[in-house]
């Protein structure tokens, strides 16, 4: 299939140069199918969902629920009740950090995270721990960016029931390493500890089946998987979603309200207070459909592998360049490369590359403690999507070499 032509944003010129968009881990570009549905809904089906009798509301509600069904099927959730729409990964994790903690966390308890967490999956738990007298326990990553399953087991054993949840990134946004989440979940469950996976990157690069994984919660954002911003998903097992209290109060999440007492709507609406981003939710359907098509296209997958191998080889050749996230098994790496270059500050490199039409990420990448673990405060990151090309990779490497030369 031809993926690139479906993304009109890639036709842009930046400072007179063709755009090379290598910041896909931050947000992905949107295909025509998503843009068209977005436009069509705003014009033809803009009525508040689940509320009115009129036709516009009915049409918007049907498209919203079709978006939910698309998510359910994409991650193989057992039922629509397991799929909660939120505004993004951060909101999904905060929902669990707030509601799970309120129900289950008490003084002296712990939440286990890894050293490679995005701030979303760190600060939200720090806040929850602070509110309930609990503490964060941090599983380290090694020089290559990998966690140790033995160490995980050792900590669960030593905690003697005080670890109440493991919150782990499926794939780190800095290291691009696919964590052995299936094994993590099996181990945690042996100690009766539920597992939340931060799937912001995982859902894009790994084929996610929440039932096969047996995770308790899975959180991700739409905008990283070709949908608009402002929509995200929380998958949860029914037993937790039933047991936890609601997150926010407001419209939609109620069954009956009196001044004395409120009863709550059945799942999934119990956690969907207020007017949802129904346009973006509906757009999950075409976005996930395209993602599925791209993942199943052998030519696109082979091209992506070629680009990944090329970049790894070429970046390694650059004098003074240090790569982070180099798992022993190359199959556990996605096409995402974070690095530092001796004698060239990441922010300066990103600025020069931008003038050459190349969009990359620089800075702490919302994972300050992880950068500190490697003795850094800033890195440069190039992250690819299936619509990128080998020619772009070649141009990126040549431009990076020129930028480094300018700074040394
Ligand atoms: C691993 C990971 N977790 C969480 C997030 C936060 O996602 P959002 O800002 O869409 O809520 C990101 C975004 O970069 C991420 O890469």
Strand order of the largest sheet: 4-10-9-8-7-5-6
Estimate what percentage of residues fall within beta strands: 15-25%
- CATH architectural category of the largest domain: 3-Layer(aba) Sandwich
Q: Work out the count of structural domains.
A: 2
Give the full name of the CATH homologous superfamily of the largest domain. Type I PLP-dependent aspartate aminotransferase-like (Major domain)
What is shown here, in short?
The protein has 408 residues and is α/β, with parallel strands linked by helices. It has 14 helices and 17 strands.
What does it look like?
It is a single chain. Helix 1 (32-44) runs antiparallel to helix 10 (278-296) and helix 12 (346-355) crosses helix 14 (390-407). The strands form 5 sheets. Strands 4-10-9-8-7-5-6 form a 7-stranded mixed β-sheet, with helices on both faces. A 4-stranded antiparallel β-sheet has the order 13-14-17-16, with helices on one face. With 408 residues, it is an alpha/beta fold. The protein is built from 14 helices and 17 strands. The protein has helices spanning 32-44, 55-75, 89-104, 120-132, 149-159, 181-190, 202-205, 210-213, 238-243, 278-296, 298-317, 346-355, 368-373, 390-407; strands at 13-14, 17-18, 20-21, 83-86, 110-114, 135-139, 163-169, 195-198, 217-221, 232-236, 254-257, 262-264, 321-324, 336-341, 358-359, 361-363, 379-383. The protein folds into 2 domains: 4-30 and 297-407, Alpha-Beta Complex (Aspartate Aminotransferase, domain 1), CATH 3.90.1150; 34-290, Aspartate Aminotransferase, domain 2 (3-Layer(aba) Sandwich), CATH 3.40.640. Pyridoxal-5'-phosphate binds next to helix 3 and helix 4.
């Amino acid at each position: 299939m031809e993926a690139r032509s479906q993304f009109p944003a890639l036709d842009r010129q930046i400072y007179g140069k063709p755009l090379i968009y290598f910041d896909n881990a931050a947000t992905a570009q949107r295909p025509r199918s998503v843009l068209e549905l977005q436009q069509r809904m705003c014009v033809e089906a803009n009525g508040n969902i689940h509320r009115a009798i009129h036709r516009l509301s009915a049409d918007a509600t049907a498209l919203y629920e079709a978006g939910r069904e698309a998510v359910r099927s994409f991650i193989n959730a057992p039922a629509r009740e397991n799929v909660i729409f939120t505004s993004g990964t951060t909101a999904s994790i905060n929902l669990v950090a707030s509601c799970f903690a309120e129900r289950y966390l008490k003084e002296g308890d712990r939440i286990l995270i890894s050293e490679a967490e995005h701030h979303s999956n760190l600060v939200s738990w720090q806040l929850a721990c602070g509110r309930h007298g609990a503490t964060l326990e941090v599983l380290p990553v090694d020089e290559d960016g990998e966690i140790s399953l033995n160490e995980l087991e050792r900590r669960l054993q030593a905690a003697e029931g005080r670890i109440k949840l493991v919150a782990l990134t499926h794939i780190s946004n800095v290291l691009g390493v696919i964590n052995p989440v299936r094994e993590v979940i099996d181990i945690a469950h042996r100690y009766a500890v539920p597992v939340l996976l931060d799937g912001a990157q995982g859902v894009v690069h790994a084929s996610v089946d929440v039932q096969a994984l047996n995770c308790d919660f899975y959180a991700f954002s739409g905008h990283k998987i070709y949908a608009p911003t402002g929509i995200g998903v929380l998958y949860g097992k029914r037993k937790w979603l039933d047991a936890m209290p609601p997150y926010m109060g407001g419209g939609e999440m109620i069954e009956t309200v009196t001044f004395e007492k409120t009863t709550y709507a059945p799942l999934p609406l119990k956690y969907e207070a207020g007017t949802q981003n129904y346009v973006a939710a509906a757009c999950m359907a075409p976005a996930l459909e395209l993602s599925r098509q791209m993942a199943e296209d052998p030519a696109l997958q082979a091209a992506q592998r070629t680009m990944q191998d090329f970049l790894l080889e070429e970046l390694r050749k650059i004098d003074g360049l240090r790569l982070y996230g180099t798992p022993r098994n190359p199959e556990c790496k996605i096409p995402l490369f974070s690095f530092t270059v001796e004698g060239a500050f990441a922010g300066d490199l990103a600025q020069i590359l931008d003038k050459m039409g190349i969009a990359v990420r620089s800075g702490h990448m919302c994972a300050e403690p992880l950068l500190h673990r490697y003795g850094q405060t800033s890195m440069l990151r190039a992250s690819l999507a299936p619509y990128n090309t080998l020619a772009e990779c070649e141009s990126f490497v040549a431009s990076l070499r020129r930028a480094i030369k300018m700074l040394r």
